[in-house]
Amino acid sequence: MKQKVPVSSIMTKNVVKLNITDDLTKAESLFKKYHIRHIPVVKDNTIVGMLSFTDLLRISFVDAVDDDDDVVDVTVYNMFTVEQVMAKKLTTVSPETTIKEVAEILASKEFHALPVVEGDLLVGIVTTTDLIKYLIDQY
């Protein structure tokens, strides 16, 4: 297996992101449209948080309600802001961080995506799926 390969070689560079002022309805729409599970939250392209699809599930009553799920979701989403629901204490990596280091971070934490930053500016995102695809390519 290759050694010291930078995460920039496997990260997603064209990142779907939310602005801190966006609402949760927009977030849900982006999750569904792009079939993703994590969206970095930015303010002027500076990373300020990370929202996961699981975060949305935690605040919704989808499992408890059979009828009018969309109405319930919108009502619940209007009760919270992206800033209230997103993770704020982020672990980030730089584009030069090795894939091995990223794998070690993700294996030791309880999240599945890391923002890739240069300074405070978001330049990419790397997920456990990216790591799995990289491993598959090695065989």
From TrEMBL:
**Can you give the residue ranges of the CBS domain?**
11-71, 86-139
The answer to whether keyword DNA damage applies is no
Keywords from UniProt, A to Z, are: CBS domain
Q: Which SUPFAM superfamilies match?
A: CBS-domain pair (SSF54631)
Keyword Nucleotidyltransferase part of the UniProt annotation: no
Q: Spell out the InterPro entries in the cross-references.
A: CBS_dom, CBS_dom_sf, Diverse_CBS-Domain
What Gene3D superfamilies does the annotation carry?
CBS-domain
Which superkingdom? Bacteria
Among SMART domains, the record links this protein to: CBS
| Name used for this protein in its record | Membrane protein
Q: Which organism does this record belong to?
A: Flavobacterium orientale
Q: What is the lineage of its organism?
A: Bacteria, Pseudomonadati, Bacteroidota, Flavobacteriia, Flavobacteriales
